[in-house]
From TrEMBL:
Lineage: Bacteria, Bacillati, Actinomycetota, Actinomycetes, Micrococcales
Residue ranges crossing the lipid bilayer per the database entry: 20-37, 43-65, 72-94, 106-132, 159-186, 206-232, 248-269, 289-307
This protein's record includes keyword Transmembrane: yes
Protein name (Swiss-Prot/TrEMBL): Uncharacterized protein
Keywords: Membrane, Transmembrane, Transmembrane helix
Amino acid sequence: MRSRGTAETDLTNKRTRWGLALLASGLIVAGAIAVLGPSFSELVGGGIAVATLLVFGVGLTQLWLAARVIGLMAQFAVIVLLVALVCLLASPMLTASGIPAVSSVAAAAASLTMAGGFALLVIAALLVLVAWARAGAHDMLVAIPRSTDAAQSSRRSRLITASVIFGSLLLVVAVGVVVELVWNPLAMGPEHTLSEIYGMLPTGEGAAGIASVLTWAGIVVVVAAGQLIWVLRAARRGAASIPRRRQVVTALLIASIAVFLLFFFAFGLGNAISDTVPPMVGRSSAEGVLYGLITPLGLIGALLVSAGPWPRSERRRLEASAAH
């Protein structure tokens, strides 16, 4: 392994983080398209698909540039990763023709391609870990800086950040409650008022569904309050206060997971309405579809915020490590 200067190490470090973050973001978007695709028009869906391919391309380019510095095994890992992504993206296309004569063959090929893609994805991940570890560059993947703020921020600014985050999470909760108790029921019973919809439900099912959604709201509020208390307690210790970036990443993960879990808490109510209220169909409101995007966008936001520039103090630590 040839010696690398601090500047080259820092650049490789940055490319690795951004490459992995972009690839993970692309996979999240692809998954969201698979789930929410029918809710989008062909034009919007096609535009998102093209944007996803561009994200994959940029991410792979960043990893390839980093791998050229690390060594041949790292380059081979990126090639395997490329093949894995091609398999995963090609799998749904094999069944898109709709031609009966080739449907069974296409379905079998799609299953094999999907399985092979996931297998290659695991192999690529293992190769990446081994290659980076052998190169003595494990800092690029597993060393998390204690402070991820680009500059030292005051205790007051961090407390303001924590307060804004808490208010934002409360807004996420409030909108989620309205989506599941008002907008989605009206979308499933468009010819009825909200009181008529709840009045048609079997005894107890409406109250149980509402209680389930409110339970979800209570849990998320408690978690959001826990994060605020976490920051307030840390702020009392002065220098140990929580960096703003860590607060933002945590909040994005909380919002993403909370919106994902709301589906399960509201499933009983939605199922009762779709089985009882004419025209007895299950559907989400337009507001509900947009609200559901918080899950993938929150995950992507957390990845991209985490991949941002490391602080000057962390670069000095890498300089000291390289000097030894």
